[in-house]
TrEMBL record, chain B:
Biased composition, class Low complexity, residue ranges: 527-545
Protein name per Swiss-Prot or TrEMBL: Transcription initiation factor TFIID subunit 6
Name of one Pfam family that matches: TAF6_C
The family this protein is said to belong to: Belongs to the TAF6 family.
Gene responsible for this protein: taf6
A GO biological process held by the record: RNA polymerase II preinitiation complex assembly
Annotated organism of origin: Sinocyclocheilus grahami (Dianchi golden-line fish)
Length: 750, 617
């Protein structure tokens, strides 16, 4: 589910600030119109309109349900119980509505909800009647397909366009004249105001004025909005607006600003003194100002968090509890050798962090308080082969090299030669025995990274002939004739943008431009399933660490959770405003993280589909994500060449690693989380002291209330090593179980 | 932030003329201005949209370049058919044309003849994707713990890089392409002058200057900075002069090579790639002079062959394999039936200089074949004189080199018939040569105890002059033996080689031991094997104590006379130890210091293998 489910909560918070500012609206509308309402309506429309892939894909439409809830509430108030029942049955809405009712608990709940519904409907009807603001009586129409104009209608009744430049200049002068400490905060207003004013001008067909406005003020915007400005500058006609999803999103999702109370008061006073209703209206309609008590933030603090398509994170969004701890490892009777056993115990003691290995070694270990219930989501049972693999893993772990600033890993680079720029994705199995590459020519190739060759299982007819009772039956089923170092998998009809091995090494997932995710068997080297649903290019896919589940994300701006034995997705994570570019499972498999072109990162709960964390701060599309092995931290890399570190539990950015000069396509933590390796298009692998970054953080006091902490600028101290390849961009990084770092990329001869 | 603004954003719009042109191309004749404007705005906007989408595909394709494929995919997103057939070899496939006040960019689509495409051979199949892993690291991965594998290296690398960020641990694995900084070897003004003087002297007409220059090259320390230039000078010089058949210059250049090799402070290994081809060219080239029938290019071949042998000895290693490569080259040419006599001579000479083993394994088995070939020329119908001379030279060369080897390897008795059976046409002559060689060996064995010798400059050199006969030598104080070319010594037929063709007469200068008499003896002895008239030259310096044998031209005689020491160019040491003994006996009384003599003998001894090869006789 989207953050919409938590909308009531936000609304309540906003209402507290809002009442006195609503006078103008109150006069024109019969019901109380709160901030939350318009937000809701906006989101509703965005869900149905601005994401055609969703409707096309036939996937559950969360936003539609939101509309339905509003309709239901209206019906209920009008005592149309039969209709209520029918509608509810048809739409299967019970769960959502209940949850929402729960969330919205508190005084004035009914009123609030009712107000929501009515105002929403009034909006819808206004639009459909093409008589803005004039219809007072809501018409109980179930409007399934509201027009785009609904979304844009809010722009239609604004003031004199010729004065926009004056307004904007006035605000600019004011902000430039305030005290330094407030200036940085208030400067955040420039960009959203600029965009909205420009769009209003465009919407109202003041083309030349829009152009003049753009030319005059586009230079004032922060450089990290460059990409958006480029889109904006091309857009000069009302018709263009209709097709442009990105800007519809911008319009419908309220841009979030975080401003200290002092600065906010300053702004409010100024606007009221000047009777600058134009700007005030925009702020109320399209912006969400998250006010906090305390010191105004500095310029650098603001810069570190801003940059996303929709402003910053609202503090409330990241308040939900996240069970980031690891699951308890199943207890396996391990026929350990004595020496292994000892090594295990020795290893276990000095560890600060709870790792998988430790939990296996000492059975008395308690459940991590931050870990989710073992059966919070159903996980596949362990098979015998899995247990064997776990034993192997433990044995390997005892031989693991302990990394640190003094003890950096060796890097082994797998270069793809003659790939003709076609290598688009790489993955290693956890035990580093297999390597898969996705190519632009639609093929997937699997290599054996060990001397052991890849063999297919024999054909059915031949399998009938073998002795099933023999001990080495697993060996006998393999066809020796097919042994080779690599196998090609054909089936996709477009570039393969993501590959992921299942943890048991029996399956391989690949996602492609052709809109499908395919599941391949590594026993027969054939395609088993093609998962259709995205319909647009699927940028990434990733297997759950326990197998069975996997997640995919694509151009249709949603991430989907699948199970290998279902041909339809189990969950759809919608909320990103642009393409979902990369997806990763949390080590405990209860959460999924997605990065997007809208420059935000979202953490989703697999259980209920909620977005539980929302991170902003990147200045470019996010192309790589990695969880620390203990599940507490997240690292993300983007086209801006920066790696950001996040504390999942507190929902905070805790570090920024600068140094790369190009897109970061690969991120990986070492097996015990001491080192973070990042690989980039700039042909380098860099190693960072993640332990230090995290430790520094933990010693600080969390100013969790404000939702931001001072970030130390210590990239140079944290950088432990930088390794150039000659002309090979790094596409993937992987730590072997013994902490040897493997890197992969295609050699680029030009 | 606002100040650090980049290039100004502006919305570029296609010109309306383009719209008109495009409309015309699809058959819409008159398009109103307003429509054009509306269209161009719309088109511009859509193009930008598509470009933005295409960028996404580029990013996900992990590339830095936008491809036509990305555009196609972006079009597909919008449900638009991709543009087919837009693959182009060129970066910008558009052509430009102007005229009638309009400028057009168009995509040239040529008519393609299908049969052409069908009939053209298929291009090479591109190489398949492959995975490259550094081997030693693969091992690491599978077996041992990482640290054990490369302990020092890794740490060192990474810690260094923290500061500099330049070198890379990865480098040692995959891409080991560290470029050495290119160093420039600049010459000082003095060095430049020296170089100019030396090279001019070496190829100039003044023999005295040349001798001086060569002496300088052979002895001066500190020439290494000029070595690359010398080496290039020689190789270029040979290249040019072979084409022009300028024998004199070739000889000068070879003498330069010799001098360079003699300089103990120079190490030529790095320049062999230039020098060896030059030397080999002088050995085997089909034609080295303008008049092959009269000019004595054989001497040059011999000399170059000796140089070659010397460099093989000095520089051949298991890695560069010079000797075996050279041997292969010679053998290949030798085995070829079409090889000309000149080249054949060069090959045999080159091989023979490489030592007895080479002669035994590569030349002796060929004797009968070569013999037959020589016989065909000698006894056959009248052929060109050149062929005859060539065959003649080859024959004497073969006999000379094979005789001593055969003498050593073949058991007694020497039966002519037996030889004939074994070696064919050459058998008879070979037999007599062998007999002589054995006799000499026996003689040598008797006198072995008396060995003392002082040789001051055991350097084989080649000297040539333009004209004149040996007569002038008598006037000079240092006594010099003048010998007509070494080939004359060898030749059985007095006619051809000794023919004095005044402008081209060359004299080979040979160094022998101090005792002039004994030297003469040596020469006579060796030449007597071939029964030539060499003895006539011998008496010219009966009292010579000079350890040099020199051959001088008449014209340069005066000059050389005035500066005797520089004149002496040591040609070679006697080849066989027997001659050594002879000389030794002659020298003994004249030597003043027994110690020096002893040391000299040692010197001689230690160098004797080399001398054997280098000596012409």
């Amino acid at each position: 589910m989207t953050p919409l489910l938590s909308a009531p909560g936000e609304k309540m918070a906003a209402v507290q600030d809002a009442p006195m500012e609503l006078d103008s609206e109150k006069e024109t509308k019969p019901e109380i119109l709160s901030d939350g309402t318009s937000n809701l309506s906006g989101n509703t429309a965005s869900g149905t309109l601005s994401s055609p892939p969703l409707t096309a894909g036939g996937a559950p439409k969360q936003e539609d349900q939101q509309t339905l809830i509003a309709v239901l509430q209206f019906l209920r108030r009008n005592k149309l119980t039969e209709s209520v029942d029918i509608l509810r049955r048809e739409a299967c809405l019970e769960d959502q509505e209940d949850s929402q009712t729960l969330d919205g608990s508190g005084g004035g709940k009914g009123d609030g909800d009712g107000g929501d519904a009515n105002s929403l409907l009034s909006r819808v009807s206004i639009a459909s009647a093409a008589a803005p603001q004039s219809t007072l009586t809501p018409i109980p129409v179930k409007n399934d397909q509201p027009d785009v104009s609904v979304v844009l209608s809010a722009y239609s009744q604004q003031g004199d366009p010729s004065l926009y430049q004056v307004y904007y200049t006035g605000l600019k002068n004011f902000i430039e004249s305030v005290l330094d400490c407030h200036r940085a905060e208030l400067s955040q207003l420039f960009y959203p105001l600029f965009v909205h004013m420009y769009l209003e001008l465009v919407y109202n067909n003041h083309e030349t004025k829009a152009k003049a406005f753009f030319e005059k003020f586009s230079g004032d915007q922060e450089c990290y909005y460059q990409d958006d400005l480029q889109i904006l500058c091309g857009l000069t006609k009302k018709e263009h607006l209709k097709g442009n999803e990105a800007l519809l999103d911008f319009r419908t999702s309220r841009f979030v600003l975080r401003i200290s109370r002092d600065s906010y008061q300053l702004l409010k006073r100024h606007l009221q003194e000047r009777h600058n209703n134009q700007i005030w209206n925009i702020i109320q309609e399209h912006l969400y100002i998250d006010i906090f008590d305390g010191m105004p933030r500095s310029k650098s603090q603001i810069d570190s968090m801003s940059g996303s398509f929709a402003g910053e994170t609202r503090r409330e969004v990241n308040k939900a509890k996240v069970f980031y701890g690891l699951l308890k490892e199943p207890e396996i009777e391990v026929p350990l050798d004595d020496e292994d056993d000892e090594a295990e115990n020795e290893e276990g003691k000095p560890k600060k962090k709870k790792t998988k290995k430790d939990s296996m070694g000492s059975k008395s270990k308690k459940q991590d308080p931050n870990a989710p219930q073992q059966n919070r989501i159903p996980l596949p049972e362990l098979k015998d082969s899995d247990k064997l693999d776990k034993i192997m893993y433990m044995k390997e772990s005892t031989k693991r090299i302990r990394l640190g600033p003094e003890n950096l890993p060796s890097i082994c680079f797998y270069s793809f030669l003659n790939a003709y720029q076609g290598l688009t994705a790489v993955d290693f199995t956890d035990d580093s025995s297999l390597l898969a590459g996705g190519f632009a020519d639609s093929t997937v190739r699997v290599w054996s990274a060990t001397p052991k060759k890849l063999r297919k299982v024999k054909s059915a007819a031949e399998l009938n002939l073998i002795d099933k009772e023999s001990d080495d039956v697993l060996e006998r089923i393999m066809d020796e004739k097919t042994a080779s170092e690599s196998k090609n998998l054909y089936g996709h009809s477009g570039p393969v943008y993501g590959v992921s091995f299942s943890p048991d090494r029996n399956y391989l997932l690949s996602s492609s431009e052709d809109g499908t995710v395919r599941l391949w068997s590594l026993q027969t080297f054939t395609c088993l399933v093609g998962y259709k649903g995205h319909n647009y290019p699927v940028w990434d896919t990733h297997f759950s660490p326990f197998g069975y589940y996997f997640v995919s994300g694509g151009h249709d701006r949603v991430a989907r959770l699948w199970a290998t034995d279902h041909y339809q997705p189990l969950r759809i994570f919608a909320g990103h405003l642009a393409d979902v570019t990369c997806t990763r499972f949390h080590p405990n498999s209860n959460y999924v993280v997605t990065g997007s072109t809208d420059r935000t990162i979202r953490l989703w709960d697999v259980l209920n589909g909620n977005c539980v964390r929302f991170f902003t701060g990147h200045k470019g599309p996010i192309h790589s994500l990695a969880f620390s092995p203990n599940g507490k931290f997240l690292a993300s890399g983007s086209t801006d060449g920066r790696v950001l570190l996040w504390d999942i539990g507190h929902g905070l950015m805790i570090g920024e690693l600068k140094g790369h000069t190009d897109t970061i396509y690969a991120l990986k933590f070492s097996r015990d989380g001491e080192i973070l390796a990042s690989g980039s298009m700039d042909n380098t692998v860099r190693l960072w002291d993640s332990m230090k970054a995290f430790d520094d953080m933990e010693t600080d006091d969390f100013t969790a209330a404000t939702g931001h902490i001072p970030l130390p600028d210590n990239s140079q101290e944290l950088l432990l090593g930088m390794y150039h390849s000659k002309s090979t961009p790094v596409t993937h990084l992987h730590f072997t179980r013994r902490n040897l770092l493997l890197a992969a990329g295609a050699y680029n001869s030009q | 932030m606002a100040e650090e603004r980049r290039q100004k954003l502006c919305s570029v719009i296609l010109p309306t003329e383009s719209m008109k042109a495009i409309a015309e191309s699809v058959g819409v004749g008159s398009l109103q201005e307003e429509s054009c404007l509306a269209l161009s705005e719309e088109v511009s906007y859509r193009i930008k949209e598509i470009a933005q989408d295409a960028l996404k595909f580029m990013h996900h394709g992990k590339r830095r370049k936008l491809t036509t494929g990305d555009i196609d995919h972006a079009l597909k997103l919008k449900n638009v058919e991709p543009l087919y057939g837009f693959q182009s070899q060129e970066f910008i496939p558009f052509r430009f044309a102007s005229g009638g006040g309009r400028e057009l960019h168009f995509y040239e689509e040529k008519e393609v003849d299908l049969s052409d495409i069908i009939n053209t051979p298929l291009p090479r199949v591109p190489l398949d994707v492959s995975l490259k892993v550094p081997k030693e690291q693969q091992k690491t991965d599978s077996t041992e713990p990482l640290k054990a594998v490369k302990p020092g290296q890794e740490e060192e690398g990474s810690i260094q890089t923290k500061g500099q960020g330049a070198s890379s641990a990865e480098v040692k694995g995959k891409e080991k392409m560290r470029m050495k900084p290119r160093s420039t070897h600049e010459l000082s003004v003095e060095q430049q002058l020296y170089y100019k003087e030396i090279t001019e002297a070496c190829v100039g007409s003044c023999e005295a200057k040349r001798a001086e220059a060569l002496q300088s090259i052979a002895t001066d320390p500190g020439l290494y900075q000029m070595l690359p230039r010398f080496s290039t000078f020689i190789s270029e010089g040979v290249r040019v002069n072979v084409v022009q058949n300028n024998l004199a210059l070739l000889i000068y250049l070879m003498r330069m090579v010799k001098a360079l090799m003699d300089n103990p402070t120079l190490y030529l290994e790095k320049y062999l790639h230039e020098l060896i081809p030059a030397v080999v060219t002088c050995i085997v080239s089909k034609q080295l002079c303008l008049r092959p029938d009269v000019d004595n290019h054989w001497a040059l071949r011999d000399f170059a062959a000796r140089l070659m042998a010397q460099s093989c000895k000095t520089f051949s290693t298991t890695t560069n394999n010079i000797q075996s490569r050279i041997t292969k080259t010679f053998t290949k040419a030798l085995l070829d039936d079409k090889t000309q006599w000149t080249t054949r001579y060069g090959c045999i000479a080159g091989l023979a200089e490489l030592g007895h083993d080479v002669i035994k394994t590569l030349i002796i088995p060929r004797l009968s074949v070569e013999g037959a070939r020589i016989k065909a020329v000698m006894d056959g119908p009248v052929v060109s004189n050149i062929d005859k001379i060539g065959a003649d030279h080859v024959q004497s060369l073969l006999l000379k080199h094979c005789a001593c080897v055969v003498a050593k390897t073949r058991p007694l008795p020497d039966m002519v018939d037996q030889y004939k059976a074994d070696y064919g046409y050459l058998g008879t002559m070979l037999c007599s040569h062998v007999v002589k060689a054995r006799a000499q060996a026996a003689f040598q064995a008797q006198t072995v105890n008396r060995t003392t010798l002082t040789i001051t400059q055991p350097r084989p050199t080649l000297s040539m002059s333009q004209s004149g006969l040996s007569a002038s030598s008598g006037s000079r104080t240092p006594n010099i033996i003048k010998v007509p070319s070494s080939l004359t010594l060898m030749s059985t037929r007095p006619g051809t080689p000794t023919q004095p063709s005044p402008p081209a007469t060359k004299y080979i200068v040979m160094a022998t031991s101090a005792g002039a008499a004994s030297t003469q003896q040596v020469i006579t002895l060796s030449s007597s094997q071939s029964g030539s008239s060499v003895t006539s030259t011998v008496p010219s310096n009966p009292t010579s104590l000079q350890p040099l044998v020199k051959l001088e031209s008449g014209t340069t005689g005066a000059v050389s006379g005035s500066r005797p020491l520089q004149k002496y160019i040591v040609v070679s040491l006697p080849s066989s130890s027997s001659s050594l003994e002879n000389k030794g006996s002659g020298v003994l009384p004249s030597s003043t210091s027994p110690i020096s003599m002893e040391s000299a003998v040692k010197l001689e001894r230690s160098e004797s293998p080399a001398a054997n090869i280098q000596s012409p006789h």
